[in-house]
Design goal:
binds phosphoenolpyruvate, 9 strands, phosphoenolpyruvate--protein phosphotransferase, binds magnesium ion, about 325 residues, alpha/beta
C-alpha cells in the first residue's frame, strides 16, 4: 500500500489531455504533515489556525503561536502554506471565550471577530510573519470577507506589522495575501476586492451554505445542502471566469474538492488548484489522471440545463462508474 502511495505521490495530477491540477492539503494539525507529504500534497491550501486555538485552554500568546506556525511552515517548506487567520464563530467555538448568538453563522465570525479584536489579530499576523523568516513559504488567507473595507483593513494590519517588525530588527517579508470567497457578497464584489489581494481561495462549504441559506450542520435541512446545487455551480463558474479575467490565481478548499462528482465539473470549469484532506489526495489524483478535460467540458455544458442537484448527479454518475 505504501509503495503504491509512493509511486503515485511523485506523479502529477494531470488529465489525459494535459490539464494539470495542483493538489494541496487542508490541515490545522502539525501531525498531519507526514500523511500529507506521503500522499504528495504540493503544499497546504488551507491551514485552519482556529484548530490550535480550539485545543488550547486560553488564547495562545504571540510567542506560542510563533513556535507552532514555524514548525508547520518548516514541515512543508519549500511548498507554500496558506495560513488562514482565526475563523471562530459559527460552529467553531473556543472553550475559553463564549460567543453565544441566535444566528451564529450570520454573526461574529472570521474576519469580523478578528477586526473587533485587533490585538489578537496583530499577535497572529506577527507570529505568522516571524515564523516565515526562516522559511519563506507563508501566504496569508483571510476568512469570511464580505466587504471591501474588511480586506483593506486587513492589508493595512499586515503592512503595519511588517513595518513594526522591521523596525524591531526582524527582517520579515510582506507575504502574498489571499481572501476566502465564502460569502456571496465577496463573489459579487470580486473586481472591487481584487486590488487588495494576490489570490483567491473558495470555501465551498460556507459558500454553499450562504448561497442556499442552508445551515451546513442542521440535520433537518441537511438534505438541502449540496454543492452540486445548480446555483452553486453557476457561482463557481462565475468566480473562475472572473479570476481568469482579473489574473487572480484561484483554488477551492471546501469538502467539494473531495467529491469525485464535483471534481469532474471543477476541472471542466478550469479550476487547476484544489485543497483537500490528505487522505483523499490519492483518490482524487487517480480520478484526474483517468479523465479527459475535453470530455468533461461537454458534460459541464449539459449540466447547465439541470434544475436540481439530483439531475446533475444523474448526469455525472455514468462517467464516475466508467472510471471506477
Ligand atoms: C469552507 O467554508 O468551505 C472552508 C474551507 O472553511 P471552513 O470549512 O473552515 O469554514
Ligand atoms: Mg468557511
Amino acid at each position: 500500500f505504501m509503495q503504491g502511495l509512493e509511486r503515485l505521490r511523485d506523479q502529477p495530477a494531470v488529465t489525459t489531455d494535459g490539464f494539470t491540477v495542483s493538489l494541496l492539503t487542508n490541515t490545522g494539525l502539525l501531525a498531519d504533515a507526514t500523511p500529507g507529504l506521503q500522499r504528495g500534497a504540493e503544499g497546504v491550501g488551507l491551514y485552519r489556525s482556529e484548530i490550535p486555538f480550539m485545543i488550547h485552554d486560553s488564547f495562545p500568546t504571540e510567542q506560542e503561536q510563533y513556535k507552532l506556525y514555524r514548525k508547520v511552515l518548516q514541515a512543508y517548506a519549500p511548498r507554500p502554506v496558506n495560513m488562514r487567520t482565526l475563523d471562530i464563530g459559527g460552529d467553531k467555538q473556543l472553550p475559553y471565550f463564549d460567543i453565544s448568538e441566535t444566528n451564529p453563522y450570520l454573526g461574529w465570525r472570521g474576519i469580523r471577530f478578528s477586526l473587533d479584536n485587533a490585538q489578537l489579530l496583530i499577535s497572529q499576523i506577527r507570529a505568522m510573519l516571524r515564523a516565515d523568516m526562516d522559511n519563506g513559504n507563508l501566504r496569508l488567507l483571510v476568512p469570511m470577507i464580505s466587504r471591501v473595507d474588511e480586506i483593506q483593513s486587513f492589508r493595512r494590519y499586515v503592512e503595519k506589522a511588517v513595518e513594526a517588525l522591521n523596525r524591531e530588527g526582524q527582517a520579515v517579508r510582506m507575504p502574498k495575501i489571499g481572501m476566502m470567497i465564502e460569502v456571496p457578497s465577496a463573489m459579487l464584489l470580486l473586481p472591487r476586492l481584487a486590488p487588495y489581494i494576490d489570490f483567491v481561495s473558495i470555501g465551498s462549504n460556507d459558500l454553499t451554505q450562504y448561497l442556499l441559506a442552508v445551515d451546513r450542520n442542521n440535520p433537518r435541512v441537511s438534505s438541502l445542502f449540496d454543492h452540486l446545487h445548480p446555483a452553486v455551480l453557476v457561482a463557481l463558474e462565475q468566480i473562475q471566469q472572473q479570476c481568469d479575467t482579473l489574473g487572480l490565481p484561484v483554488s477551492l478548499c471546501g469538502e467539494m474538492a473531495s467529491d469525485p462528482a464535483a471534481v469532474l465539473l471543477l476541472i471542466a470549469m478550469g479550476y487547476n488548484c484544489l485543497s483537500l484532506s490528505a487522505y483523499n489526495i490519492p483518490r482524487v489524483k487517480l480520478l484526474i489522471r483517468s479523465l479527459s478535460r475535453q470530455a468533461l467540458m461537454s458534460l459541464l455544458e449539459q449540466t447547465r440545463q439541470c434544475s436540481s442537484e439530483a439531475e446533475v448527479r444523474a448526469l455525472l454518475a455514468p462517467v464516475l462508474e466508467q472510471v471506477g
